[in-house]
Write a structure and sequence with these properties.
By secondary structure, the protein is mainly beta. The protein folds into three domains: about 20-125, Immunoglobulins (Immunoglobulin-like); about 130-235, Immunoglobulin-like (Sandwich), CATH 2.60.40.10; about 240-340, Immunoglobulin-like. About 15% of the residues lie in helices and about 50% in strands. It has two helices and 27 strands. Strands 10, 12, 13, 14, 16, 17 and 18 form a seven-stranded mixed β-sheet that branches. Strands 20, 22, 23, 24, 26 and 27 form a six-stranded mixed β-sheet that branches. A four-stranded antiparallel β-sheet has the order 1-3-6-5, with no helix packed on it. Strand 16 and strand 17 (about 225) form a beta hairpin. Helix 1 packs antiparallel against helix 2 (about 355-395). The longest helix is centred in the last third of the chain and has 39 residues, at about 355-395. The protein is flat, with a radius of gyration of 35 Å. The two termini are about 50 Å apart. Residues about 10-20, about 110-115, about 350-355 and about 390-400 have low confidence and may be disordered.
Length: about 400
């Protein structure tokens, strides 16, 4: 009876637990972009994973020119081959073929969602003559008194060579005032080739100060101006970390979490940044060290550091907190206001979140262990009773003594 109850419990748990099916596609040295040639043949290899039953299918405008080789349809993890034979002609531009993998539910009663993913390959048919495409501006952040590289990304989607491509890059500051004009190098661009046409900006030569700048680029290919201009953002930085926010209120006679938000103006990484806080009740608090990683694209790196402050001995009111940030042998100091208010501080240690799938696995494991132990307990009891019976049957019966 006990074992039956245990199995019933396990069955109900498996049925009632939410289940989200998953499936994935792995690739084996596949090209993501293929240049079209009439009648060209390609063999693409994939692996379907993370599912006990997976349906494979093809999508895209090149699906009709593709053959799916699946030796185990609707099976589990397995290898898939797609053989593509391109037609004699395709319209210039991008053409797609996708492998779609869909998890097949074992039963209509199964709870949860059905996962479906796809992985694709692009076939590009070139345009007649030359066909330049100005894809964007690459402008990396750099620091004051340094030189920075700014480039125009250009690709030739035409069948013929671009003999001469170059551009002009105009630099504007945060007030939208023109501060520099740069001429790029000149480059040839082969068919189906992507190049970076670069220029160098010397921040010292133009007396540029730290801040966010805009690079506006125009392109000329074989004496023909490209119809669009594009822009990109970059930052000229300096070695400085600023305090941009801090906790505004804490509770009287409590242990409070005190959080600082800091921001780096350096166009690079700064490691081991920390802060010291002098509190109104004479305590010195130190935060853990944090690394600030450059984000690029004109964005400043930010981070939060925290510590804990006991406010015993202080009345409610507004006080000054003196904060010093330490980094690369330098410091930035600032005084901020803090309000001590009545009330109870929230719990400063919150329970860690546990992944629900881990909980399910642990519960199932525990139930299985209980079932195994219960089985052996009942099995041993049954054996002991059987042995006792056998032993009693084996006793020699003697007639009573006269």
């Amino acid at each position: 009876m006990l074992i039956k109850k245990m199995f019933l419990l396990l069955f109900l748990f498996m049925i009632l637990s939410p289940l989200v099916l998953a499936v994935g596609i792995g690739e084996y040295n596949n090209k993501k972009l293929i240049l079209f040639e009439p009648g060209k043949e390609e063999e693409l290899k994939f692996q379907l994973v993370d599912g006990s039953r997976i349906k494979a299918s093809l999508e895209g405008d090149l699906a009709e020119y593709s053959t799916l080789i699946d030796t185990y349809p609707d099976g589990g993890t397995r290898n898939i081959i797609i053989r593509v034979k391109l037609p004699e002609y395709l319209e210039p531009g991008e053409h797609k073929i996708y492998l779609v993998a869909t998890e097949v539910s074992e039963s209509s009663a199964t709870l949860g969602g059905i996962a479906s993913v796809r992985s694709g390959v692009t076939v590009f048919a070139l345009y007649p003559s030359t066909h330049p495409v100005f894809k964007g501006i690459v402008a990396n952040d750099f620091n004051i008194n340094e030189k920075g590289d700014i480039g125009l990304n250009v690709v030739n989607y035409g069948e013929e060579l671009i003999e001469n491509s170059y551009g002009t890059i105009t630099i504007y500051n945060q007030e939208d005032t023109q501060v520099a004009v740069l001429q790029t190098e000149s480059r040839k661009i082969n068919p189906f080739e992507e190049v970076k046409i670069s220029a160098t900006l010397n921040s010292a030569a133009y007396n540029l100060t730290p801040g966010i700048y805009t690079a506006n680029g125009s392109l000329i290919c074989d004496n023909t101006p490209y119809p669009l201009t594009l822009e990109g953002k970059f930052r000229i930085g300096q070695m400085k970390v600023d305090l941009i926010d801090s906790t505004k209120e804490v509770y009287v006679n409590s242990t409070n979490k005190y959080i600082l938000t800091i921001e780096s103006d350096w166009a690079g990484n700064i490691n081991d940044v920390y802060a010291k806080i002098i509190t109104p009740n004479g305590k010195t608090l130190k935060t853990p060290n944090v690394d600030m990683t450059s984000l690029g694209g004109g964005r400043k790196a930010t981070a939060q550091v925290e510590t804990y402050w006991e406010t015993e001995g202080l009345a409610t009111g507004t006080y000054d907190m003196n904060i010093t940030i330490y980094y690369q042998g330098l410091t930035t100091s600032k005084s901020v206001k803090i309000n001590i208010i009545e009330g109870k501080a929230p719990e400063i240690q919150k329970p860690k979140k546990t992944n629900s799938s881990i909980i399910y696995i642990v519960i199932i494991f525990v139930v299985i262990i209980i079932l195994i132990i219960s089985y052996f307990i009942v099995f041993k009891k049954g054996n002991r009773r059987s042995n006792e019976k056998n032993n009693s049957d084996d006793l020699e019966i003697k007639p009573p003594s006269l």
